[in-house]
């Protein structure tokens, strides 16, 4: 006979099965969201990357403007130098001085031509980069609009399910308190190792739910007695009898309906 305040095995099995029903319900809620949270996260990362690229492109355009300005300054300086040499030509004393000054003027003219060529190159590069900025800005705008729509979808789903999830989490905590830590840990371990997240299942047609392996009659009787925790030797899942499962499903369906 169980001592006062001691939780019986049957009570633990019921609490475990109720916890499973809650966890499965939470799984359903999260499946409704589908890939939306990941899509939102991916879009946010993509937008951050596009904004960084746009920032770099704009910096490159600024650099082209700065380089063009430097070349224009070089042209002005070369013109000033050319004028100075033009004045010196008026006072040449021999052919040697004349040739030297003319060479300097030619050098300044070449500097002007080179700077003008570079200015054209920078202008062409700037034009291409500005075209790329326009395309990138359009893509960024489109991705931001897409993100806004996806966030709207997610927020709507979260708004609908947030209250239910909170209430389910509170209810799950109540059932967890009826289960010792080691059993709860075992439940979570089994749940994480199975595809559908079902760590505790009822016997169906003489076999573990979702399995084709028949459970011996003697084991079925032990499960129905609800005197100890029994696991399926094939799947590792905790087993309960159909009547207990039916009773708890009906009870929890009422709980779920009240929380929607």
List the helices and strands and how they pair.
Layout: H1 9-33, H2 36-89, H3 95-176, H4 181-193, E1 200-204, E2 207-208, H5 217-225, E3 238-240, H6 242-259
Parallel strand pairs: 1-3
Antiparallel strand pairs: 1-2
Protein model, in words:
With 260 residues, the protein is mainly alpha-helical. Helix content is 77%, strand content 4%.
Gist of the model:
The chain has 260 residues and is mostly helical.
Q: Average pLDDT across residues?
A: 91
Strand content: under 5%
Major sheet strand order: 2-1-3
| CATH architectural category of the largest domain | Orthogonal Bundle
CATH class categorisation of the largest domain? Mainly Alpha
Tags for this entry?
single chain, 260 residues, mainly alpha, Helix Hairpins, 2 domains, three-stranded mixed beta sheet, 77% helix
């Amino acid at each position: 006979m169980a001592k006062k305040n001691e939780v019986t095995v049957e009570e633990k099995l019921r609490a475990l099965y109720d916890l499973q029903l809650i966890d499965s319900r939470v799984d359903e809620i999260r499946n409704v969201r589908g890939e939306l949270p990941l899509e939102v996260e991916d879009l946010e990362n993509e937008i951050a990357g596009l904004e960084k690229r746009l920032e770099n492109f704009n910096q490159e355009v600024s650099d082209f403007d700065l380089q063009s300005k430097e070349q224009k300054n070089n042209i002005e300086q070369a013109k000033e130098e050319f004028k100075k040499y033009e004045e010196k030509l008026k006072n040449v004393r021999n052919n040697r001085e004349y040739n030297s000054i003319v060479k300097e003027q030619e050098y300044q003219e070449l500097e002007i031509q080179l700077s003008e060529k570079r200015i054209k190159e920078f202008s062409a590069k700037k034009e291409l980069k500005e075209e790329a900025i326009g395309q990138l800005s359009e893509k960024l705008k489109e991705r931001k609009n897409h993100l806004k729509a996806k966030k709207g979808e997610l927020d709507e789903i979260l708004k609908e399910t947030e209250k239910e999830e909170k209430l389910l989490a509170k209810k799950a905590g109540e059932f967890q308190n009826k289960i010792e830590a080691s059993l709860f840990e075992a439940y979570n371990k089994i749940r994480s190792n199975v595809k559908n997240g079902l760590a505790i299942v009822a016997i169906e047609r003489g076999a573990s739910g979702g399995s084709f392996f028949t459970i011996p009659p003697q084991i079925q009787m032990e499960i129905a007695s609800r005197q100890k925790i029994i696991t399926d030797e094939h799947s590792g899942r905790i087993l309960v009898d159909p009547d207990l499962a039916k009773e708890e499903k009906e009870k929890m369906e009422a709980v779920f309906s009240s929380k929607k």
